[in-house]
Amino acid sequence: xxxxxxxxxxxxxxxxxxxxxxxxxxxxxxxxxxxxxxxxxxxxxxxxxxxxxxxxxxxxxxxxxxxxxxxxxxxxxxxxxxxxxxxxxxxxxxxxxxxxxxxxxxxxxxxxxxxxxxxxxxxxxxxxxxxxxxxxxxxxxxxxxxxxxxxxxxxxxxxxxxxxxxxxxxxxxxxxxxxxxxxxxxxxxxxxxxxxxxxxxxxxxxxxxxxxxxxxxxxxxxxxxxxxxxxxxxxxxxxxxxxxxxxxxxxxxxxxxxxxxxxxxxxxxxxxxxxxxxxxxxxxxxxxxxxxx
Amino acid sequence: xxxxxxxxxxxxxxxxxxxxxxxxxxxxxxxxxxxxxxxxxxxxxxxxxxxxxxxxxxxxxxxxxxxxxxxxxxxxxxxxxxxxxxxxxxxxxxxxxxxxxxxxxxxxxxxxxxxxxxxxxxxxxxxxxxxxxxxxxxxxxxxxxxxxxxxxxxxxxxxxxxxxxxxxxxxxxxxxxxxxxxxxxxxxxxxxxxxxxxxxxxxxxxxxxxxxxxxxxxxxxxxxxxxxxxxxxxxxxxxxxxxxxxxxxxxxxxxxxxxxxxxxxxxxxxxxxxxxxxxxxxxxxxxxxxxxxxxxxxxxxxxxxxxxxxxxxxxxxxxxxxxxxxxxxxxxxxxxxxxxxxxxxxxx
Lengths: 293, 348
Fold this sequence. Notes:
heterodimer, A: alpha+beta, Ku70, Chain: A, Domain 2, seven-stranded mixed barrel, two-stranded antiparallel sheet, 9 strands, 25% helix, 24% strand, extended, disordered C terminus, B: alpha+beta, six-stranded mixed sheet, three-stranded antiparallel sheet, 16 strands, globular
């Protein structure tokens, strides 16, 4: 993956060369628009809203609609003049505590990867931030636009999180939310218990994009000319893991089969491992011909 | 891996190669059985090459509702001799004996009877508990008919052969419907198994169990340990159950299985566990037979009650030995494993 930005983290007198790499995978299934009649791809064309004629790129300019139907045109030169120049740097202005930042401000994470020669100061900054629990707040110019950003430690990586400016967030005051005094204490106790029962450490792997998986199943089934069976979506992930686990056990058992047998004679009378089962499930009663596993 | 040492007892030798019936001097076995049954029911069968077997009470009714006798069962086996003997060849046999017919008491017999006649093949093997034990070994008509003489109806062979009892030559999925699952659901699950097998590029033979379920048998190349055979079956069963959890399950606990699901049992592949052989009669009303099927017969029209000791000999003549054809070429588990990604998850 190519770097989307190259520059340096600078704070005080220190400057650490880094690159910005995307930390988010575009995982959407993409579709092409087709003409239903013959399935030929359909393309976009820019047409003039007045006469319906196609307009080539060379004749397109950008306008700001200052009042209904009235535009002021901005040229490339105007954009260039507005663009923030020069500083290929993430200027860290402040260090704050992680939990002081309202998560609504975070927009998109990127990995900060040290450029050549930046490894040692990178590690130094990271360890210092780790020890102090600090998050750096600064500004970064990406594609001529200024962004607010937070730099934080995630494992061995420094992660740059693009942030929203305060004016981009809708204030909660624009909506009405119920006050706390409508809640009865007994109800609160019960609700707290319920939460306690469902309390789990957060494990993001647990949650899967079932819609995407469903779509892929439908696509695969259609390729085979069948209708997809979408039932097992709920547990597809653990089942996949089971199958993989079985595949690797199968592989292992083949490897064992290659070894000479003579040494193992009689040592493993229960040659077959009992399959795993949940602690709650009971063995079914074995008829006489069955060996209890 | 345990080595199953076997010893051939001297008595086993003469009975080994008694397959041909019509071509040898004695009358066809079917005719001899009829004659004995019409006479007093007791007599001696001449099986060719000097092999003989005493039989008795051939008129005894094994299937009361159908009036099918011990002689009928023996005649059936004599008619499908070539097919069933090759299914059983060199395999230890597990007998379920019904001395008073299918409605009476039954019991399993693993050990070869001490007084087994010389024509019967018995060998000392190391059983699943590691003990030396004499067992009946399948492959000839004398031994098969002797098990019926003892009151066994279906005879279950091991999935491995002497002397290498630790190597399985096929792996089985036993589709066992829950109390509320109709046979049509067994068919549905069998089709899913077939699809998974296709996806894994494995071949298999489906057969009716002769009872309420079906067996899907995947032939293996020589040299596969029974442990590997269990895992291969478990892999396929798990794929099927995860794909269609409303109709298929691999849950071992009977009480935890939804009553409308089909249990995809891969555990019958553990050494010394058995399922009924292809072409074996089952102790069920109608004297149904576990019958190998072409995959295109596995559809909604399939009714396991169509395959009985009356119909199967004719079917075998008409359609040939589907089992032998399907089992001829073993699947490579190594190829299966190597075709799969080594680790990680399926790309999403």
